[in-house]
Amino acid sequence: MEELDKSQLQLLKNAFDAFDHEKKGVISTDMIGTILEMLGHELDEDTLNEIITEVDVNATGELQFSDFCTLAAKFLTEEEEDDEAIIKELREAFRLYDREGNGYITTDVLKEIFKELDNSITPEDLDTMIEEIDSDGSGTVDWDEFLEVMTGE
Ligand SMILES: [Ca+2]
User: Fold this and answer.
1) What pTM did the predictor assign?
2) CA 137 to centroid of ligand 1, rounded, Å
3) What is the Å distance from ligand 1's center to 2 Cα?
4) 123 C-alpha to ligand 1 centroid (Å)
5) Alpha carbon of 144 to ligand 1 centroid (Å)
6) Ligand 1 center to residue 83 CA distance, Å?
7) Where do the coiled-coil regions begin and end (predicted)?
8) Mean pLDDT taken over the chain
9) Percent of the chain, pLDDT > 70?
10) 132: CA distance to ligand 1 center in Å?
11) What pLDDT does residue 106 have?
């Protein structure tokens, strides 16, 4: 449970209570998919069944709040690992595009990357994005600037 922070717990409690109409302290496992979807985590049916089976060990078809937290912690934690994996991938991408190992990517190369990511992007949008990223107008983007744009952090 320690993997979940207070705001995550509050969010889960609100969702749990909303679906525990009769205030029995349990919710049906049928509801799990819907709840997770509401919280912005859409899982395919196989994954969903897999984690429900893991948590509902006695196959009662119902989960208590603590079980529900255990379930949520599973993929909230997985998601954190995903974030780390994404940053690792971005780091590799940055190295790849920083061909000469200068520690920066030129805005020309960055435009190519954006076009690859989204081929419907217009030249005007590209210019606007580049202007925002390369705030000092140096014509280059370093790792910090790159990460900020890619992760929104
Ligand atoms: Ca710059």
Assistant:
1) 0.48
2) 6
3) 40
4) 20
5) 10
6) 25
7) none
8) 83
9) 90
10) 10
11) 92
